[in-house]
Design a protein that fits this description.
The complex is a heterodimer of chains A (115) and B (120). With 115 residues, chain A is mainly β. The N and C termini of chain A lie far apart (41 Å). In chain A, strands 2, 4, 5, 9, 10 and 11 form a 6-stranded mixed sheet that branches. Chain A contains no helices and 11 strands. Chain A is globular. In chain B, 3% of the residues lie in helices and 53% in strands. Chain B contains 1 helix and 11 strands; from the N terminus they run βββββββββαββ. Chain B starts with a strand and ends with a strand. The chains are: A mainly beta (115), B mainly beta (120). Chains A and B meet through strand 4, strand 5 and strand 9 of A and strand 5, strand 9 and strand 10 of B.
């Protein structure tokens, strides 16, 4: 059974520092890995989607890497801002024989960026 | 572009009352649809998923049910709410349906804005 772990569970950094969020998964048979952001009381916003054949994806200050063989992904957020404060979730889409490929989520990392 | 709508945003219901949450998707056809629940301090739990009209699969036995009366409409219901049904309910879609293949499995999920349900 696929298990997804996110470390640390919480992180507090001063504004301007780079953020490093880790995600690990136990089964490397995945189609893709997706990073989401969740603000308090809100839905999930997709940040980056990395296919199993890719090593990294970038969007603005965000960069996500994927090492499928070792079951790890890292989300880097450069020059953090108070507006980056949120919970960050990673999710993997396992390779399955059926057509739905249900996401497996980590518990999330709660990030606070202090001014 | 594709959009997903979920309502209501917040709901306070007494124990034993019925529930109906609605989710609709625009700009795509034949999507996979999902209902997730996020309880306080806990992760996301998949409740139901659907690959087509009238086709519902349940992940967790509970007091809830789901229906898909139209291709892009997904409804979460309960006949009698329990206190333990309180939580944050999220609808999501992914671009794969009955005819989906490996390429479509490489697309991501899109989530709605959620419904905060408090059972009192």
């Amino acid at each position: 059974k696929q298990e997804v772990t996110q470390i640390p569970a919480a992180l507090s950094v001063p504004e301007g520092e780079n953020l490093v969020l880790n995600c690990s998964f136990t089964d490397s048979a995945i189609y893709n890995l997706q990073w989401f952001r969740q603000d308090p009381g809100k839905g999930l916003t997709s940040l980056l989607l990395i296919q199993s054949s890719q090593r990294e994806q970038t969007s603005g200050r965000l960069n996500a890497s994927l090492d499928k063989s070792s079951g790890r992904s890292t989300l880097y957020i450069a020059a953090s801002q108070p507006g980056d404060s949120a919970t960050y979730l990673c999710a993997v889409r396992p390779e399955t024989t059926d057509s739905w490929g249900k996401l497996q989520f980590g518990a999330g990392t709660q990030v606070v960026v202090t001014p | 572009s594709q959009t997903i709508h979920q309502w209501p945003a917040t709901l306070v219901q007494p124990v034993g009352s019925p529930l109906s949450l609605e989710c609709t998707v625009e700009g795509t056809s034949n999507p996979n649809l999902y209902w997730y629940r996020q309880a306080a301090g806990r992760g996301l739990q998949l409740l139901f998923y659907s690959v087509g009209i009238g086709q519902i699969s349940s992940e967790v036995p509970q007091n809830l049910s789901a229906s898909r009366p139209q291709d892009r409409q997904f409804i979460l219901s309960s006949k009698k709410l329990l206190l333990s049904d309180s939580g944050f309910y999220l609808c999501a879609w992914s671009p794969i349906g009955l005819a989906g293949g490996p390429w479509e499995l490489r697309r991501g999920y899109t989530f709605g804005s959620g419904t905060r349900l408090t059972v009192v």
